[in-house]
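Hi! If you just cloned this repository, the fastest way to understand the data is to look at a raw example. We've pasted two of them here, unedited. The first protein comes first, obviously.
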Amino acid sequence: MLLLTVSVGCNRTRKYPLQGEVVGKNAVTSEITVKHGDIPGFMPAMAMPYRVKDPAVVQELQPGDKIAAEVVIGKDPSDYWLEDVRITDESARIAAAPPAVPRMLMPGERAVNIALINLSLAHDMSG
């Protein structure tokens, strides 16, 4: 009877609260990489990928988002994922916005007025 109790106890999933920052995502594998603090009773602070079962959540998340979630550990300890993912702060999205993509000027368009320096001439003058 004791063996049955121990066996049943090992077959259930465990959940741990996670708070961290999304540092990357892969929509193809439905994973986000999270830099998180200590997860008491589970693991120290680190950055690692976590599977998210809902692809819509992965699409919504962006690098820089601060999140809170539940790390779920399946029956097999190598099977883990995030559930109940909530964005707690998305203000870093603005700072992480990609720069404007350069484009080719068309004939007749004016170029932006910038100063250009001829480094070979500057080198010749120095010495």
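Ok, and the second one:
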Amino acid sequence: MNKKPETAKNPALKIKAAQEKIMFGKPVADEPQRAEIIMPGKNGAYNDVKKGGISTRQVKPAKPKPVAAPRQPVKPAAKPATKQAAKSVPVKKKKKSPAQESQELAEGVVLSFTYRLIDEARAKGGYLSVSDLKELNKDFEEKTAEMKVAIEKSFDDYIADHERKSWLNSRTRPFDRMIVKSFSHLLEDESRKIKRSKLVSRRMLPGFFIALNLMLGTDIRDSYQGKCRAIVKIIGQRNGNDFDWDDIYDNEDARAIVFDALVDIAGNFSDLNKRRDWFVDLVNSHLENPGDVEDEESQAWAFTPEGFDEFFQALMSELRVAVSMEAGRSLVTRRRDEKTTENLIKLIKKMGNPATP
């Protein structure tokens, strides 16, 4: 016979059971429930049933997830060294000037001579006889050939350095250089080893530049100089290390400047015979020092009227060609005036016949 629970007989027990707080674990779905909890529902009816009971399955606490270590930044792999990087960059040494090389050469010769004397004196008890010195002199004579080569190289370097500086300085006065270009084929080279004319020499250049300043005037000459400098600068920037004076001589703007200057110069020689004498005297009173030239003819050289005629023909060659053509005469007239063209034609005729007054 089924026995009813006491709570069914005694409603107070039901209320008391409902008020008790019963602690039990989390139900597991796969385990059967051993009890039911009846809770009062709406309107005092005990029909709210909840599952309860204790699970026989022990729930193991979840293992904590391992905390990952912070990621270190990945360094890029080193690139393999190239052949160029492997080589050490050579330090470019500053080239010594010829003066420094000559100084070091002289000091080296003196020190070598001195140390040799000291060594010989020590070997012979601190004293050297006349015969010892003669023997040493033979040794030094044998080394003369080697010293000669070194001295010649130093001297050649000095000449090359001097020419380089002259080249750089010539850029500051390009107009003078361009005027000289018109008769430079008559001049000997800068070393004076090649003579092209017996009547014309580089020794005339100082007097020529003085005459040029007197014929053009300082302001006009400086103006031409400034225009030519501008052309040299433009061509130099464009060509860089490939700068060549032939680029200046062939430049149309530069040729126009020289053409105008030659017209101005020609205007000073309307009385050709009188001006010839003036020019010859001026040049001879300002001749360049011949230097160490051993040639007696070069040492005794002087400018002559015959030399002037040869020089002036070369100087005026471009104008002579211009006035021989209608286009050239028109060019002079457009740049100056008809009177200038007429005077230039007369001068060219006198040059062909110097006896013409």
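That's it. A detail worth noticing about the second one: The beta strands are 35-39, 48-52.
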